[in-house]
Amino acid sequence: MSAGFDIFEVKINYYSASSVFVLTMLWGFITAFLLTTKGYRYADFMFVTNRLTSHLANGLFLLTMSFLGSLTASLSPFLIRVIIFIYQDEGHITEDFLMSAQAHEFIIGFATAFLYLLVFSVLGYLFGMLIQFNKALQVIIPVVFLGGLMINSGEQGMIISIINFFMMESSFVLFTLKMIVSILVIYLSTILLTNKMEVIR
Q1: Which residue in 95, 81, 97 sits closest to 20, CA to CA?
Q2: For 118, left (φ over 0), alpha (ψ -120 to 50), or beta?
Q3: Residues 64, 56: contact at Cβ < 8 Å?
């Protein structure tokens, strides 16, 4: 954004790490989905004895992956600022630009990123497990999701309502409770639905 006057010109640039966060959530979904593929299931067979043990091991992996991914995504704005500071004129950049986030803001941002990434990870894990029952679901589920978005694009449809249920929450405590309950419901549903499946099926 820029504004010009007779004597001087003001130019404001906005820098955001939102794309980093979106790509991190996509990475979490795809990685969790890949855990359910045949190659990883054969790898499970060498270390675990049943499906429950496999689920628990994968759950710990998703927790670790989400922690590291959210930490990296939360720190990426500082890296972006440092790069801008190096390649831009120092006279137009203040020290507040480099260290503008307070400690509590960083902690809340990290916790939010962790919960979002974990939700996307368990969704990817559930999606991958459901495909093991019927390969047609890999087409049906995306079609139903995208179709629901397009059909109700001008209204408050079910999918939009679910998204708003999480993203429009103003209280961080309620947001955390919603995310934790959702993560537990999705993960436990995955375990119950696939508990009878053999590890190397």
Answers
A1: 81
A2: alpha
A3: no
How many CA atoms are closer than 13 Å to the CA of 145, on its beta-carbon side? 10
Q: Over the chain (201 residues), what is each successive 10-residue block's mean pLDDT?
A: 56 69 90 85 69 85 94 83 70 54 80 93 90 77 71 62 75 90 92 68 49
End-to-end CA distance of the chain: 56
Residues 63 and 75: their CA atoms lie apart, in Å, by 18
pLDDT at 186: 92
Strand partners, 11: 2
Position 26: which residue type?
Answer: L
Q: Which candidate, 186, 51, 194, 183, places its Cα nearest to that of 132?
A: 194
Q: How far apart are CA 4 and CA 10, in angstroms?
A: 6
Phi-psi region of 119 (alpha: psi -120 to 50; beta: other; left: phi over 0): alpha
Tell how strand 2-4 and strand 9-11 pair up. Answer: antiparallel
Collect all residues with Cβ–Cβ distance below 8 Å to 89 and sequence separation of at least 6: none
d(CA 164, CA 107) in angstroms, rounded, equals: 23
